[in-house]
Design brief:
Layout lengths: L4 H18 L7 H8 L3 H13 L3 E4 L5 E4 L8 H9 L25 H17 L4 H14 L21 H26 L5
Helix pairs in contact: 1-3, 1-4, 1-6
């Protein structure tokens, strides 16, 4: 098994979406991801099309549109994503669980190479099928904190209040504050216009 560039970028993009989501940004634009990962936007869009078709991400159009995770991070396993993008994890097809294909060996049952490759396949799939996106995002954020490095997407150009609905309570308090200022201003002007009697 060799992770292709396409597979590598798909995993990195999912990790970035997971990190952004944990930091309060559930949706990212392709341009932001491409800029962070230094990737061509068109190539990244092709990868997202594949991830979207498989139900890993979803998209939204518009000013604050972009891509977000379509399922919980705990339900996204690295082995499944790699199989989607790059095919089987097995180094040779005759030991693959998902796309077995008979090889040219005349005695498959007693082939030493096949026995060795079974162990290789099992070692790879044990690790990749065990780890979820949630675990890798947590490990990554922990390392950012440990090294005192600011994680990506923490300081985005779009303020969070621009995409969040304004709460009714804050509208009321803003109105109260504005009313208080007006009352204060009018009482000051009355005091200035009518000097106190002596």
């Amino acid at each position: 098994m060799k992770l292709s560039k396409r597979g590598e970028y798909a995993l990195r993009a999912l990790i970035d979406l997971g990190i952004a989501s944990e930091l309060g940004w559930p949706m990212l634009q392709v341009s932001e991801l491409a800029s962070k990962e230094k990737l061509p936007i068109k190539f990244l869009e092709q990868i997202f099309t594949q991830l979207k078709s498989a139900g890993y991400v979803e998209s939204r159009r518009g000013k604050f549109g972009g891509y977000s995770l379509a399922r919980p991070m705990s339900q996204i396993k690295f082995g499944a994503v790699i199989r989607l993008i790059d095919g089987p994890l097995a180094p040779i097809r005759c030991v693959s669980q998902t796309s077995y294909c008979r090889c040219s060996c005349p005695d498959e049952a007693h082939c030493g190479l096949r026995m060795l490759m079974f162990d290789v396949r099992n070692a790879i799939s044990t690790i990749l099928d065990r780890y979820t996106l949630a675990e890798i995002v947590e490990i990554t954020l922990r390392k950012y904190r440990r090294d005192k490095v600011s994680p990506p997407f923490l300081h985005r150009s779009i303020p969070l209040t621009a995409v969040l609905p304004v709460k009714k309570e804050s509208l009321r308090s803003n109105r109260r504050a504005a009313m208080g200022k007006r009352l204060s201003a009018s009482s000051n002007s009355e005091t200035n216009n009518h000097p106190p009697k002596r």
